[in-house]
Specification:
The structure holds 3 protein chains of 3 kinds. By secondary structure, chain A is α+β, with helices and mostly antiparallel strands. Helices cover about 35% and strands about 15% of the residues of chain A. By secondary structure, chain C is mainly alpha-helical. Classes of the chains: A alpha+beta, B alpha/beta, C mainly alpha.
Chain lengths: ~250, ~625, ~325
């Protein structure tokens, strides 16, 4: 099962860098991260790579393998042919620090901008009652492991640095959707701010975020599009606006 | 040189951003103090995410017979009565509040029909007790805590203009030293992993919440972070470690394929009906039910199978025995030649449940093995064997305040703290351990800071810490950290692993000492920019101290109990139950001292059936009937 | 690579040869779109933009993908473009859309006198006959505007044409050729938010097409109780259009997605779960119904033009 793998690993820092060819042994059943570790231990002692659980649960080893944003721990080498060169680069939407490690602080800044969950003040700990069907939608979004592959692949910021100011990105659209669909959250303006502060309107639903999500969260269909529809409810649909004025009800019909 | 380093002043520094560290930070911030959270990884990546099964708390949502006393009894039984009773008591009493509190911060646990938090069965717990979210409970917990921190930062941003006024996360920073002045904590020193730049934290209180030591071993479920940093930092700062011989080898780690070697198969796979078989196809667990558990576990397949339908009138299947029993059973089967070709046994859930139900109840298990290794658990059996999972031993603390014994201003919570789990931890108890004692460590640190105030750091202390960081770069042609680490892992795996003997332990102690000596001469290639070889040099130092402490404690304990199995002393011995092994560090060596375990007070003693206690305690202890 | 400015002083763009990118695969695509290559006036080459921004890993390739990422947008482009050509031709043809009892979906509901007597979905010549510059306006134009709006604002088709026509982006992790991007925040794209109204209109149209399908259970003389290939064609067309409409995201939202607590609305929750199942297949229904409507029209056209005979089963 042992085979020889041809890798091209990007090495460098924020100023300069290039792809470097490496040949290394591997076994089918191993993942790209195993191979990177072997390179590190035998040939490039100072090759920088970020990783943690090596089980697809923490979302640390995000990188681009043959141009696709992926988790290195979830990319099996058996997927690549014997003659194939495997090109490994850091995420290309974020500033690089060194080798395969990028500065993902953008995402933590955006996390700070999404208003946190607000629990009903009169509901004491232990008194909350929620039905399973009511929490399931939000639970899907809470599966997110924050690997930021969706953020990396999203062309809104990948291809347009200037949009980073005004665009939260798919990871935070699912966070907003999670809270807007949370049965108990009391903050009522999430739909409005999704559009006005977090740049939901910038998304043109080309679904790359869904394609790269290692947790298979249906980001576009279950979070972004429903949020866009909810925004229409409160901002663009004259009939619903009229209805809400007349009935003064929220969240129903 | 001390003039140029990055300096920060905080009331409290929390080392580690897992469940315990974040809970401590929240507590401190809510009490109005300033907190720095320092972690080796990115924020939100801590090993807590790996916890799958759930968080044990006797809320009684599924079975209303459950209460803290039952939970306390289960915890003590699981730990073979070597637990610090007060920690087990606090844990059992406070766990439900800590879970409910998470809900007020936005956590979304799975629900019962009445809309309460659903609870599931787990090994060693008498009633369904584990609050869970599918099989990603740890992720839910850490994300909730992370979002709670963000919520507090948002409040600060609104009130002060900056989110980092009171609470700031220093991600990807390694702490190499806890700074002492006049025998009291004065701060912490470390470097940024990104570029090797040194950072000084001046703080009168430090909370250690660094998690485990798994990377000391060859096969482990722990990530690279589990290098025993907190254990070693505490030792070097003058604190003690308690009972470091007790390590939990999770009975069911994947042994094959390679890409998932060491990764855990959660106990819920067995809870949902997974059975263990050897290479002959025998369901072997029935042969390994210890006498103390005869009344709770079924001794035949028919009854075990009925339990899944009717839990009130049948005994549990033996696959749900406490972890150490299952680990030992698997080990025996493999040693007797009835294991798989990769040295494990089969765990199969596909025969009992439909593919659809497996995917619904164990989504991330299915997903993980299918994606990581191409194994479909709805169709085929998994190959599993023991993997180093959790360390019961840890920093000796005051149960109520989580203050480390021996150094003022130092606190420890979570896996890095010892005592709570005795000789063996029950599944599900660790997540609530993080919350209960994370909060208590936060409270303890707050009280300490309020009464003691600032303890300034002297330049000479800083210089000493800085010299140590620079040292690996000043040597040339020295030892390679990677190969020393590998050597250490071979030694611990072969000689201090799941089954131990006197001869092997003595050999291990000698070899570990040899590596420690050689490690003083480690040299590092490259520069300080995100250099993993450089990082490993410091991690290795910590692992060596931990390994020494474990090997020496294990040599002393001449019995088999929980996570410590001596081939030359196979039985449990009540006199050994009366003592803890306390490790301390004199600057050169780890020394072990024997210390009496606090006896159960009468009101807790009386919670048990005396006949049950007779299995663990000496007749004198029974006659005394508790300590007061 | 000619006249492009060098992105930054430090960083010069190496030749295509050194990256895993195969120009010959892209050629047919480029020929059709003309937007892609660096030599295109629309290509990003402003220093410091996108993946070539300051601070990001220095790599010259727009993408390092080695798979056939260009294939899907290419095929999408060809098929959609072909449909547009065909539909435009048919919309202006203003003929061969009725052959008792079949009416083309492009011309239903029937607005012209040509099918007054017999069309099941005849709503009358409400628009009369319009003339612009002396030319008769095809009644199809009044009808097609609605499905066009529905499909144009459809969440699936948006993805399809943003990728294949506008290349924003052409495929995931493939740098797009635009220097600026504002998404759906401004006119005209902000009108995408009106999707639900197009959806309602589409539903009305589906009703007419269903009536047409039922009416196809007649013979050429208008007698009921007969069935032909044409019946099947119109039935299939109506069915796929319903599936396409009901599986749509705005339908999913309206039927229950906008609710906060499903448990308080069990019926709508049930409907939502059904629509959600369909919604998984929305893309498939979008394509099948598109082919369906074109083929149904083609069939009616051929029958109407006597090129083929509508074969009756009974």
């Amino acid at each position: 099962m042992a085979r020889t793998l041809k890798l091209r690993i990007w090495r460098g820092n924020d100023e300069d860098g290039a792809l470097q060819d490496v040949t290394v042994e591997g076994n089918n059943g191993e993942v790209v991260l195993d191979i990177i570790h072997r390179v590190q231990a035998t040939q490039m002692g100072d090759l920088a790579v970020r990783w943690n659980c090596k089980a697809g649960k923490c979302g640390s080893c995000s990188m681009e393998i043959n141009g696709k944003p992926r988790l290195a721990c979830m990319t099996q080498i058996s997927a690549y042919g014997d003659d194939e060169v495997i090109t490994i680069t850091p995420l290309r939407a974020f500033p690089v620090i060194k080798d395969l490690v990028t500065d993902v602080s953008f995402n933590y800044k955006k996390a700070l901008e999404v208003r946190a969950y607000e629990h009903p003040v009169d509901l004491k700990p232990g008194e909350a009652r929620m039905e399973q069907v009511d929490v399931e939608r939000s639970q899907e979004f809470r599966k997110c492991i924050e690997c930021f592959l969706c953020q990396d692949t999203c062309h809104v910021i990948r291809d347009h640095e200037e949009n980073k100011k005004s665009f939260a990105g798919p990871r935070f659209f699912i966070r907003i959707a999670e809270l807007d669909m949370h049965p108990l959250d009391t903050l009522r303006n999430r739909k409005q701010t999704a559009q006005s502060e977090h740049g939901l309107g910038m998304c043109n639903i080309t679904k790359c975020c869904t394609e790269v999500c290692p947790e298979h969260i249906r980001i576009t269909d279950n979070a972004i599009i429903p949020m866009k529809e909810r925004v229409v409810d409160v901002k663009y649909d004259p009939l619903r606006w009229l209805g809400s004025v007349i009935r003064k009800r929220d969240g129903i019909l | 040189m001390t003039a140029n380093i990055e300096r920060h002043k905080y009331d409290i520094v929390v080392i580690g951003a897992g469940g315990a560290g974040l809970r401590a930070a929240v507590e401190a911030r809510e009490a109005g103090l300033t907190v720095a959270i320092v972690c080796k990884s990115l924020f939100g990546k801590a090993h807590t995410v790996m916890a799958e099964g759930g968080a044990a708390a006797s809320m009684g949502n599924v079975n209303d017979k459950d209460n803290w006393m039952v939970h306390f009894r289960d915890t003590m039984r699981g730990g073979k009565f070597l637990n610090h009773y007060r920690m087990a008591e606090l844990h059992a009493k406070e766990a439900p509040d800590r879970i409910w509190e998470l809900e007020t911060w936005g956590a979304l646990f799975d629900r019962t029909k009445e809309g309460k938090i659903s609870q599931r069965n787990f090994g060693g717990h008498e009633y369904p007790r584990l609050a869970h979210v599918g099989d990603r409970t740890g992720l839910e917990l850490i994300r909730t805590m992370q979002q709670r921190i963000v919520a507090l930062q948002q409040i600060d941003a609104r009130e002060t203009g900056s989110p980092e006024t009171n609470i700031r996360v220093f991600a990807e920073v390694t702490i190499t030293e806890i700074l002492n002045e006049n025998g009291k904590v004065a701060g912490a020193y470390g470097y940024r992993r990104e570029n090797g730049a040194e950072v000084l934290f001046e703080a009168p209180a430090v909370v250690i919440a660094t998690g485990g030591v798994g990377k000391t071993f060859k096969i482990t479920s722990n990530s690279w972070e589990g290098t025993g940093d907190g254990h070693a930092l505490a030792l070097k700062a003058g604190a003690n470690l308690v009972d470091m011989e007790f390590l939990q080898f999770h009975p069911t780690g994947m042994v094959w394929p390679l890409s998932v070697k060491g990764i855990l198969v959660t106990e819920s796979v067995r809870g949902e009906g997974g059975i263990l078989t050897n290479s002959l196809g025998e369901r072997f667990m029935f042969k390994y039910i210890p006498d103390v558990f005869k009344n709770q576990y079924a001794d035949n397949e028919a009854e075990a199978d009925r339990w899944y339908i009717d839990q009130d009138n049948n005994r549990r299947p033996p696959e749900l025995l406490p972890r150490d029993e299952v680990a030992r059973a698997i080990n025996s089967e493999v040693k007797a030649g009835r294991g798989t070709e990769h040295g494990g046994v089969f765990l199969d859930v596909s025969k009992r449940l439909s593919a659809e139900i497996i995917k619904k109840r164990l989504p991330s298990m299915w997903h993980q093995f299918y994606e990581l290794a191409g194994v479909d658990i709805t169709k085929e059996a998994m190959e599993v064997g023991p993997t180093c999972h959790y360390v019961m031993g840890g920093v000796e603390v005051n149960p109520d305040t989580a203050a480390a014994v021996g150094v003022e201003g130092l606190f420890a919570a979570g896996e890095v703290a010892g005592g709570m789990h005795g000789s063996n931890r029950l599944g599900g108890n660790s997540l609530t351990d993080l919350l209960v004692f994370g909060r208590r460590a936060g409270m303890g640190a707050v009280a300490y800071v309020k009464s003691h105030g600032v303890n300034p750091v002297s330049d000479s202390t800083i210089e000493k810490a800085a010299t140590r960081i620079a040292a690996p770069f000043t040597r040339e042609g020295g030892e390679n950290a990677y190969s020393l680490h590998q050597e250490l892992q071979e030694i611990t795996h072969n000689l201090v692993g799941i089954i131990r003997t006197r001869v092997e332990l003595m050999e291990a102690i000698e070899k570990i000492a040899d590596i420690r000596q050689r490690s003083a001469n480690i040299s590092v290639t490259g520069d300080r920019m995100f250099n993993p070889g450089f990082h490993l040099a410091f991690d290795l130092d910590n692992m060596l101290l931990v390994a020494e402490s474990t090997a020496k404690s294990a040599l002393l304990r001449e019995e088999s109990r929980g996570g410590h199995t001596r081939d030359d002393f196979p039985g449990m011995n009540p006199t050994w139950r009366q003592v803890n092994h306390i490790s301390s560090f004199d600057g050169a060596n780890v020394n072990i001292k024997v210390q009496a375990l606090p006896a159960l007070p009468k009101e807790l003693f009386d919670l048990f059936d005396v006949h049950e206690l007779e299995k663990y305690m000496t007749p004198q202890e029974i006659a005394k009937g508790g300590s007061n | 690579m000619g006249s492009n400015p060098t992105p930054s002083a430090r960083f010069t763009r190496p030749s295509w040869a050194c990256v895993r990118f195969h120009p010959w695969k892209v050629v047919p695509y480029l020929a059709l779109t003309g937007l892609w290559h660096e030599t295109s006036p629309m290509a990003i080459d402003t220093p410091g933009n996108g993946v070539f921004s300051e601070g990001r890993a220095k790599l010259s390739a727009r993408t390092l993908r080695t798979d056939k990422w260009w294939l899907t947008p290419f095929v999408t482009f060809v098929v959609l473009f072909s449909f547009i050509v065909y539909a435009t031709f048919r919309a202006f043809e203003n003929g061969k859309y009725f052959a008792q009892p079949l009416i083309s979906p492009f011309y239903s509901p029937c607005l012209s006198t040509d099918c007054v007597k017999d069309s099941p979905s005849f709503v009358g010549t409400i628009f009369g006959t319009y003339h612009i510059f002396g030319m008769t306006v095809s009644p199809s134009l009044f009808i097609l505007i609605f499905p066009l709006a529905f499909r144009l604002t459809c969440y699936y088709y948006r993805k399809a044409y943003y990728r294949s026509f506008w290349m924003s982006p052409p495929a995931c992790a493939v740098a797009e050729p635009h220097a600026k991007y504002t998404g759906e925040t401004r006119a005209p794209l902000i009108l995408q938010n009106g999707h639900r109204y197009a959806f309602y209109a589409g539903l009305v149209l589906n009703v007419f097409l269903s009536i047409d399908a039922i009416g196809a259970f007649r013979n050429e003389k208008g007698q009921w109780g007969h069935m032909s290939i044409g019946t099947l064609v119109l039935l299939a067309n109506a069915t796929f259009l319903w599936l396409y409409s009901l599986s749509c995201h705005t339908c999913r939202h309206t039927i229950g997605g906008r609710l906060r607590n499903f448990s308080k609305h069990p019926v709508r929750y049930k409907l939502w779960t059904w629509v959600s199942v369909l919604n998984h297949k929305h893309q498939n229904f979008a394509w099948i119904s598109l082919f369906g409507v074109a083929l149904a029209d083609l069939y009616v056209r051929q029958v109407s033009g006597h090129s083929i005979r509508n074969l009756y089963f009974f």
